[in-house]
What we know:
The complex is a heterodimer of chains A (198) and B (119). Chain A is mainly α. Chain A folds into 2 domains: 1-94, Orthogonal Bundle (Rna Polymerase Sigma Factor, Chain: A); 109-198, Orthogonal Bundle (Arc Repressor Mutant, subunit A), CATH 1.10.10. Chain A has helices at 6-14, 18-40, 43-60, 71-89, 99-105, 111-129, 133-143, 149-156, 160-180. The relative contact order of chain A is 0.09. The radius of gyration of chain B is 47 Å and the shape is rod-shaped. Chain B is mainly alpha-helical and 119 residues long. Chains A and B meet through α2, α3, α5, α6 and α7 of A and α1 and α2 of B.
Amino acid sequence: MPPLTDDEALSSATQGDKTAFGRLYDKYAARIYNYVYYRTGSTQDAEDITSRVFFRAMRHITNYTDRGVPFSAWLYRIAHNLVANWHRDSSRHQEVELEDGYRASKSEEHPEVALLESEEQQALMRLIRNLPEERQQLLILKFVEHMSNAEIGEIMDRTEGAIKSLYHRTLLSLREEITKDTTGSFSLDMFGELPSEE
Amino acid sequence: MKIVWPWERKKVEKELGSIEQMLASAFKPVPARPAFVNDLRKRLVGSKNPLARVSLSTLELLLLIGGAIVGVFALLFTIVRAIIGVFGRLRPGAGKLGQPRPPREKKPKVTTEPKKRAA
């Protein structure tokens, strides 16, 4: 029997086919986990919320109707709502632990270079965590999921132009925060040879 | 947010490019624990009730129901027989079911006269 395509799997899953839902799970589990991980900063909470996303999706998938929005957008919205609840319910805002994923990938570099870069990235993550929720969501979808502005727009229920504009404003606000930063976490040459803006 | 003047645009664009590079290297995909992924899949897709996966034909279903009914009757019959057996054993001299109870034998009367003393 040939394997189901995504559309077929979705169609079968909406009729209560668990095997088809399993196929959708296989495709999206890692992506949803990544999204939740970067929004919560904790492996344990990421696992907990990812579980709840898929259980909720399975409970409501029979009510899912294709309105031209991809299935992934539906899943990301569930994840977004659960993460928002999580932030509301608990005042825990933990630091994102880059060590697990990041240091392992940089092990071939000189330890000092890796450490400096890691510190810089920790500082950057702190700045990102202070951004409004929608901007954090945009950055994660863009840099972790490598989505286009159009795809992000479908998830965030905005036009492609609005996403492009929001992204530009997000970068400008990050730049402002970095130039204000007095902790010395960011290397002086990160903006090249150009003098920093007064 | 500060205004970006036209003469600063080139510099700002370059700085934004640097920030994008930093973001690209900061946001690495983090793999989930395989045990978690597999366990969640089992909880989602794996059926807890093994019978739910078995689809019975009509004949099999009829046989199953018929067998259950016969089994219940056999069980009831056995229980009733056992109860009757127990009560039957408790009654001494009880005959078979449906037979009238035999009349009780009269006990000999006990004389209350005092015994004559031997002379």
